[in-house]
Amino acid sequence: MKKVLSKILFWSGFGIIPVFMAAAMSGKTTISGEWGVAAYIVIFAAIALMYLGFELETSSPREIAVIAVLGAVGAAGRIAFAALPNVQPTTFIAISSGYVFGPTAGFMVGSTAALVSNFFLGQGPWTPWQMFAWGLAGSSAGMVKSLSPRIGRWGMAFFCLLWGYFFGWILNLWSWIGFVKPLNWQSFIAVCAASFWFDTLHAAGNAAFCLLFGPGFMKILERFRHKMEVT
Amino acid sequence: MLDRFFYREKGLFLQSLHPLSALVYIAVLLTLALMFNHPLYLLGLLSITVAAVKAVGGFDAWKAFLKISLGATSVIIIVNVLTVRAGQTVLWGGPHIPVFGRLDVSLEAILFGAVMGLRLLLIMSIFCLYNFMIHPDRVLDLLSRFSSKSGLVLSLAARMFPAVVSRIDGIREALTARGVDFNAGTLKEKMSKYAVLMKILLLTFLEDSMETAEAMYARAFGSGRRSCYVRENLRPRDGACLAASLIALVTAVYGWSKGLGTFGFYPQAGNLIDGRTGIGFLFAVIFLLSFPLLLSWGWHIWPFLKSKI
């Protein structure tokens, strides 16, 4: 029962965002016609639901320690690759973690990497959206594994490439909702067009990470997953 | 630089507030920034926020936030000009653009974009204030009372981050000593070199994580409810700031529901001061939000007040 409840809470966190976006575009406005407050309430509620889902799951100290390490490595990856513009392995690390350890672990690694790195780089209005986007990248990789266990190297690279764009689009949501009017597809496309080259660099970097050191990385993670299961 | 938090402890009044009071103050500022769209309200809130940033010694860092905001404001203005058709004062009738339709640049769209840029600067300033006002450990401590596992993951990761960054430097130095030049070669070659670095890093820390887990087992983690010790006390200063923030929020929501603090941009921009402005209401909200700043000022110059709060 607790396990089912944790799954429901976890996945309902993801469900909130598309519903909210559709509501924002439907033309029915809030009291003052502003969606900014609602956007922050929704994103914090989505993250809280997913954290609650993780809380209700049974996790061993090993799982907790591994998630924390992967989150810290993902966060530090943002610094290691700072010399390459918008090329950062955090998305790839969240995806690999989700693929190997499952959707909940993937979410925790992605969201932890975002929050912890911003403790040191500086928190901004983008933090909850980064937490959500990287968390979702990790979780979706876990879903991909259950849907297509033999996705292959190129399939995974394509998935990582797509996430370069998805990540940018999710981050664009806060600026689109908070600062643009009217909220429609045209304005959303205009906001995404403004970030196209940044997103493309991110996507190309993700695919390159996956192709260059994806198999080696996965092998290490699989080894530790196996180690956690047998000891 | 990355071996310590963005936060800097300076022993200031605003930094001494209970994390709950500080978080409520920040949350109220953020809510009001997103609620009101009147330029005067946004300017009032910005002045309070910048004064608070100065009071926590973050003014130099705020200048960096200002630069980011100015860059993003130009994008916001362009997007609004491209997509808004509701403005009446058309400054330039442009060509037809696929997806967006006819490009008409209106004064109202530019004005709306500029005011939204002001809102963006305000939101960035509020986050700048958050960065300098609340120590991350105190927030994580507060969080761990409600969510022990997630709080632990975040605390562990925050502790490990400086170690990971310094280990990156160590591995990089070791690889450089062995002839690896991280700055030479094509992008693909550079990424391959960094890939080796990341693999070593991952292996080292995953091995360490097993030891961390052993230490957690040894401390009986998971055997029952996690112990939680309350180190933070609510003092009179916290009660005063909490009350001022909440009264400001209630006042603001009441006025907002009556239509105050909203500015009509379309079809034609309204007057800056009219019946919907509510100057007295604006001053009331600003006064309530500046209460923690007044206390901060009094705390520094009046030892009696300092001893009482």
Automatic annotation (TrEMBL), chain A:
Gene3D superfamilies reported for this sequence = 1.10.1760.20
The stretch of residues making up the signal peptide is: none
What are the transmembrane regions? 6-25, 37-54, 66-87, 99-120, 156-176, 188-218
Keyword Transmembrane helix present in the record's keywords: the answer is: yes
Q: Which UniProt keywords apply?
A: Membrane, Transmembrane, Transmembrane helix
Q: What is this protein called?
A: Energy-coupling factor transport system substrate-specific component
UniProtKB/TrEMBL annotation, chain B:
Gene Ontology cellular component list: plasma membrane
Q: Name one Pfam family in it.
A: CbiQ
| Record localization | Membrane
| Membrane topology label | Multi-pass membrane protein
Q: Which domain of life is it from?
A: Bacteria
InterPro entries, sorted:
ABC/ECF_trnsptr_transmembrane
Record-annotated membrane-spanning stretches = 12-34, 40-57, 64-87, 107-130, 239-257, 277-299
This protein's UniProt keywords: Membrane, Transmembrane, Transmembrane helix
This protein is called Energy-coupling factor transport system permease protein
User: From which organism does this entry originate?
Assistant: Thermosediminibacter litoriperuensis
Print the organism lineage.
Bacteria, Bacillati, Bacillota, Clostridia, Thermosediminibacterales
